[in-house]
Amino acid sequence: MNIEKITAAIRDIPDFPQPGIVFKDIAPVLSDPDVFRASVDLFVERHKEAALDKIAVIEARGFLFGAAVAYQLGVGIALVRKKGKLPFTTVEATYDLEYGSAAVEMHTDAVAAGERVLLLDDLLATGGTAVAAAGLIEDLGATVVEVDFLIELSFLDGREKLKGYEVFAPVVY
Ligand code: AMP
Description:
Layout: H1 2-9, E1 11-14, E2 22-25, H2 27-31, H3 33-47, E3 54-58, H4 61-73, E4 76-82, E5 90-96, E6 101-107, E7 116-124, H5 128-139, E8 143-152, H6 158-161, E9 167-168, E10 171-172
Parallel strand pairs: 3-4, 3-7, 7-8, 8-9, 8-10
Antiparallel strand pairs: 1-2, 4-6, 5-6
Helix pairs in contact: 1-3, 3-4
C-alpha cells in the first residue's frame, strides 16, 4: 500500500536533463509529509535490527532520505560527494559515464575499519555511482551491509554491476 502511494508520487519528466532520458522526479515525494515518512519508514523498518554503525549517503538526493533514516535509527552519517566538495583529506573513486567519467569522494574518517555501513541513494540507474561509493567504504576497511535505493531503473542493469552486494529498492521500473 505504501509502495503504491510512493510510486504514485514519483513524477516522470521526459527529456531531462537531455533528450531520451526520463527523469524520475522525487520532489513530490518530499513535499508530501505522509509519502516522505512512508519512504523513510521502508528503510527504517528494514534495518532497525541490523546493528548499523553508519549510513553512507550519496549527493544530493541520497542525503535527504539517508539523513532521516539515520536520525530514526540513531546511527551516524557518512557523506559521499562529487569530487572537490569535501574539505578534509579524502579517498576518491572514478567511474565511467556514458560520455567521460566522474568521481566521488569520502573523508578518510567518514567510516572506520570494521563498521557496518548501509549505502543509500534515491535511484539506481547504471549503478556506477553506487559501485564507486561501495568501493570507497571498503577501502576504508568498513563493511557494506546493503545498498539501498528508493527507485530502481531495472532496464539499466545496475543490479548486475552491484553483484556481490545485497541490493534493496522498493520501487522498480
Ligand atoms: P548511476 O550511477 O547511473 O546509477 O546514476 C545514479 C545517480 O544518477 C543517482 O544519484 C540518481 O539520482 C541519478 N539519476 C540517474 N538517472 C536518473 C533518472 N532517470 N532520474 C532521476 N535520477 C537519475
